[in-house]
Design goal:
Elements lengths: L2 H9 L3 H20 L7 H21 L4 H36 L1
Helix pairs in contact: 2-3, 2-4, 3-4
């Protein structure tokens, strides 16, 4: 993807979507720190770091230059994911308990 197409793509996104992307890329980078054997090559990691920087810059710009406000959106996205992960885990546990009771 060339730079012009990438820039146009990013400009089509809302701040909340950019926050979700920033959350996901940040989590990938954190995972690679814990599991380096699963990490992509260094050149790809560097490219994704540049993508994350571009996403963050645009998110801040769309929030009228308020970096704290955009970072708060990213934190809200993290909180939403944690809540969804907990709910999904709980639902799996409940299904497992029901199936165990049927046995």
């Amino acid at each position: 993807m060339n730079q012009a197409l990438f820039s146009l793509f990013l400009e089509c996104l809302e701040p909340k979507t950019l926050a979700y992307l920033a959350r996901d890329l940040t989590e990938c980078q954190e995972d690679w720190g814990f599991y380096p054997e699963e990490a992509p090559p260094e050149s790809i990691q560097e490219g994704l770091a540049h993508v994350l920087a571009a996403i963050t810059r645009l998110g801040v710009d769309l929030m009228d230059g308020d970096e704290a406000e955009f970072l708060e959106l990213v934190e809200q996205a993290r909180d939403e994911q944690e809540a969804e992960d907990w709910a999904a885990h709980r639902a799996r546990q409940e299904r497992k308990n029901w199936l165990n009771d049927l046995e």
